[in-house]
Every structure is written in structure tokens, then in C-alpha cells.
Write a structure and sequence with these properties.
The protein is α/β, with parallel strands linked by helices. The strands form 2 sheets. Strands 6-5-4-3-2-1-14 form a 7-stranded mixed beta sheet. A 7-stranded mixed beta sheet has the order 7-8-9-10-11-12-13, covered by helices on one side. The chain has a single domain, classed as Ribonuclease Z/Hydroxyacylglutathione hydrolase-like (Metallo-beta-lactamase, Chain A), CATH 3.60.15. The longest helix is centred in the middle third of the chain and has 12 residues. Strand 7 and strand 8 form a beta hairpin.
């Protein structure tokens, strides 16, 4: 199982990266998590075949996580896709995704492939994803949001999308070989971050420590580059195996 980051910034993009998005791959199955930037271009840069894209998982309905969904679906149609595509999220998110795509009347296109919208608030995804097992769990944020865990070959990857750090972690989130966690700023930013439903780099590291993760990659970073060295220093002081994100690199789980 590999994870490729396609973007790592929070709400405001900068010259080196678009908003957070990533893709999980295993045995010719690819699951895109959140849809930002230019998704087809980013998938190509990561070496992901569009025909392997099985599912789009949307963690929540804030604009930086969902806005590129119509573009992705449109380009898959233009390139001749015929296989159905699952779009998965909690009920609130799936409703917003439907409303967004309806603006462009995508499902009225001739020979449009089937878009299968599936709602999962919590628990194990019951459908088929090759040999991958997907579980989702709610996380505290300004709108209904989910985190996710992928398991394959006795390895585990866990992603905590936008969330605060003051909640009881689900059992599935423990003992991940790789944890990717949002980090919106420094320790000094924590009161302001908490008000907006976010965590600091230090709090992400505390989560990794508590959850017994093998390694931690920070994402959803602020637009100001200048604080990145201090963010990684604060995180490493708590959890040594912390990294800043690298785009398109395959993180092998």
C-alpha cells in the first residue's frame, strides 16, 4: 500500500502546493481522498492511472476539500471512462457533493459513467476495494467530518483530516504504520486553531504518540512558509518520527 500526497496546504494555497488531497493505492486500486487543485494533473504527476481510480472519499464539505470534484468527474467523462465511480462521505458531505455537481448537470451528459454516491458515517466500508479494508470515523470540526483508516497486508494507514485534538480516538486509529494529520500552526496558535476546529503541529505529534503510530506526516499546513521549521521542531520534540509533506512521493506503508 502506498500513499501519495497531491497537495498539502490548508485553505490558502501557495506557490509550492495546492490544498490537501492524497491518493491511496494498492494492487491497481486507487482511492482519492478529498478533491482539490487540478486532480487529473496531480494524479498523473504521482504516476496514478486514471483507470485505477475506484473511489473518491470526501472527508467533509469545506470548499478546499471538495471544490474540484466536478472537474474530476468531467475529465473522467471526457477521457472515456465507462466504469462506475464511488463517491463516499458522510450524509452531509454527500448531499453537498451532489448539489455541487448538479450545478454543471454532469449526470445529464451523454454516456456519462455512473456516479455511485454512498453514505458512511462510521464503521467499515461494505463494498469491494480489492484487498483494501477501509474504515471511517467521525472527527470534531466545524461541519460533519470523518477520518479514515486503510488496512492491507497487515499494514495500516490512518488519516486525520481537519479536526481538533480533544476527543476520544477510535480503536481503529491506533497502531498505524503511517499517520497523516492536519497541522495548522504553532503551539502559540492553538487557541485560535481550536476555535476553527483545527490542530497544531505539536497536537498532531501528541496524537501520533498517543496512537502509537510508526511515523507522522503533517499536512493542511498554513500558507506562511516561515513557520514550517518551528512547526516541525515543536512536533519532533514530542514525536521524533515526524516529517513535513513531500508531494507525489510514494509513502510506502
Amino acid at each position: 500500500m502506498n500513499v501519495h500526497l497531491l497537495g498539502y496546504t490548508g485553505s490558502v494555497q501557495h506557490e509550492d502546493s495546492g490544498n490537501v488531497s492524497m491518493v491511496v493505492t494498492h494492487d491497481r486500486t486507487a482511492i482519492l481522498i478529498d478533491v482539490s487543485g487540478a486532480p487529473v494533473m496531480e494524479l498523473n504527476k504521482a504516476g496514478i492511472e486514471l483507470r485505477d481510480l475506484t473511489m473518491v472519499l470526501i472527508t467533509h464539505a469545506h470548499i478546499d476539500h471538495i471544490y474540484a470534484l466536478p472537474s474530476l468527474l468531467h475529465q473522467l467523462w471526457l477521457t472515456g471512462r465507462s466504469e462506475s465511480l464511488v463517491v463516499l462521505g458522510n450524509r452531509f458531505t454527500i448531499q453537498k457533493a451532489r448539489e455541487l455537481c448538479d450545478v454543471f448537470m454532469l449526470e445529464q451528459k451523454k454516456r456519462m459513467f455512473q456516479i455511485v454516491r454512498e453514505v458512511l458515517e462510521e464503521g467499515v466500508y461494505p463494498g469491494t476495494l480489492g484487498s483494501l479494508r477501509l474504515s471511517v470515523f467521525p472527527v470534531p470540526h466545524g461541519v460533519p467530518a470523518i477520518g479514515c483508516a486503510f488496512e492491507a497486508d497487515y499494514r495500516k494507514f490512518v488519516y486525520f483530516a481537519d479536526c481538533t485534538s480533544n476527543f476520544t480516538y477510535p480503536a481503529i486509529a491506533y497502531d498505524a504504520h503511517l499517520l497523516i494529520h492536519e497541522a495548522g500552526g504553532l503551539t502559540s496558535d492553538e487557541p485560535a486553531l481550536a476555535e476553527k476546529g483545527h490542530s497544531s503541529a505539536r497536537q498532531a505529534a501528541l496524537a501520533a504518540q498517543t496512537l502509537h503510530a510508526g511515523s507522522l506526516v503533517l499536512c493542511h499546513l498554513p500558507e506562511r512558509f516561515s513557520c514550517y521549521p518551528e512547526m516541525i521542531a515543536e512536533a519532533k520534540a514530542v514525536f521524533e518520527h515526524t516529517q513535513l509533506p513531500e508531494l507525489y512521493k510514494p509513502y510506502e506503508v
